Structure formats: C-alpha cells, structure tokens
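JOB MANIFEST
job_type = single_chain_structure
chain_count = 1
residues = 370
[input]
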Amino acid sequence: MYSGMVCNNTKKYLNLLEPEEVVNRFLNNPPEGFDPVILEVESKNVPGFLAELDLFITADESVKRLFQKYRKLIPGFVKNFFTPKVFFVGTTVSEYALFPSGTDLKSLKDSAFKRLKETGLKFLIFKDIPSESPLLSGIENEFSKKLISYLEKSGFLVIFGQALAYVQIDFSSVDEYLGRFSRSRRKDFKRKLRVFPQVSISKIPLGDEFFNEETIELLYKYYLDVYENSKIHFDKLTYQFFKKLLTDKENNGMVFLYKSQDKVIGYNLCFMVQDYLIDKYIGFLYPEALEYNLYFLSWFYNLSYCIENNIKTYIAGWTDPEIKSYLGARFTYTYHAVYIKNPVLRFVLTRFKSLFESDKRIIEKLDSNL
C-alpha cells in the first residue's frame, strides 16, 4: 500500500473525502471571480463562496442551444436573471458540501439567510449535498438526508446535481475488470490501449523538487487547455492554487505524468485518503492526448494503481457521465438546495427544474439501454 496513505477518521468536516488542506487552498486562493466566505454557525465554520452562475451550466444541450438562438431577442434586464451572482454554501474543490459535525440545521439556515441579506444577493444554493453516498458513513448520509428535508420544508427548491463517478476495486486484475464488459466493448478498449507501450508514466509525489516554476507553469497550461475544451465552465482555478497544491508535501497526493518521446502529454493529480484514490485534476496537451487515447489510458492506469496498492475505491470525479459509464463507473448523485427571491426565476426553475438535471437524465437513459 502507498506509504503516504492517511486515515481521515478525525476529519474536521462531515462529507470530506480529500485532504482538508485542499479546502484551505480554495479559501486562500479562490477561482477567478470567486469570493470565499466563511459562514459562522454557532461556534463552527462552514465554507462557502460568492460567484456568478450561468443557470444553463447543467441544462440540456438542446435547451442551451435554444437559449443562445433567441438570446438576442431577450431584453437585457431579463438576461441578467439567468446569470445571477449567488451565495453558495460549499466549495468547488471538495466532492461534497462540507459541514462540521453536530451542526444545528436551524442555526445553519439562519446563518445562511443572515449572510445572504448582508450580501444583498437574492440567490442562495447549498451545493453538492450527498444523497445516500456509498463513499460516506451512515452518520454523514443521515445528516444530509435531514438537511435536504429541512431545507425543502423551509422553501428551498431541491434539484439533482451532478453525479459523482466511482469504481469499486472488487477485481484482482485489469483483465478481470475487462471481462465484465461485452465482447464489442472489450475489443474497443483493447484497440484504444494498444498505444500504452508508446507512453511512459511517472509517479511524482506532491512537494517533490520536480515541481519547479517551469514545470508548474506547464502543468497549469495543460489544465487550462482541458478547461477551455470542457462543456462546463464554472470554477477556473488559479495558478497560485495549483502551485500551492503541487509544492505542498502534506497534501498526500501524487501526479501521474504521461510522456511520449520525452514530451509531457498529460497528467492526473490524485489524492490518496483512506482506501480512496481521488482523481482530482487533469491536464492534457492537444492533440497528442487524443492521439494517444490518454483519457482511456489514464483510467486503466489508475485502476491498476489501485489494485497494486490495495486501494478499494477509485473516485473518478464529476462531468462526462457518458464516457465514464462506458468505462464501467457507477454513480452517486448529489442534490442542490436552491433558494430564490426573484419570483420569475423561482417560477421558471420550479416548473422546469428537470431541464437543469442533465446528469440524472443522461444516466437514466444509459441505464435503460443496458
């Protein structure tokens, strides 16, 4: 087992999977355009932030296209309805919303409303609340269940958020894992993995002297390339955030570096906590990453790493549910609890909330085709 593996039994927050220091880095070096917030609930601190939100960020592609088509016809004051500044309870660097153990629900809600009033904003979201997550304890899941119910009774609209992908490592080899798929899919995987011998892989612990200024700049550029090629643009992490992560030995993480002909073509930044390998950030050089099927290669390499190091669960993150399902991932949902003062937006989201639950619809469609 990886010698740096740590236990998270005494973690500061409920729902925390990654090292706590990652959350601290978010608060000290927030994404571009974000204002970090510490919400005081009795004597406890709950992390949050203020940021603009494109309400169509998780909507169906057809809905997005329709909105863009008629955007020029929409009055300016109405357009602003769809990109409000929002007070979020949660972070974008933790898989789930984080709450100190023993947090009182009424005090939490009252503190959030008080801060909402102080900011002058009209939009409050408790983001990424777990829903019966197999990655969390019974105590954590019970707290989330009570929180969702309480917020819904308090006038919040509860909608499905993104789905977190994971793989239980209940197999002893990649070949055994491949044996679970159909013949045609195995053939496709093996075809994509033929380039494996042409790619070299290095495992570099965070804090290693390898991460000098030049290297950090390169890895950050690759992260930005993935960000710009992504369908979802929300939290653009800063160079300083990455620099702090990469140079901090206490983060218990590793960079898996992929090279072809001595040229870096991509990487995964992962954390090892308890029995989890958490695939947190990726960076790719295009078009090389596509030519070498790096998404597929990194997936199977991560599974191999888990097997070799007796790690029980690979947590593959958010986004791209179609491809992750194709690769064999399971999913656990989150909820967002949304409070909206504006009656027009409240009406729209309440009547058409299913249009903003794209991950849920995608996965249900995939399941129905099995």
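[summary]
The chain has 14 helices and 13 strands.
The chain has two domains: 13-161+333-368, 167-326.
exit_status = 0
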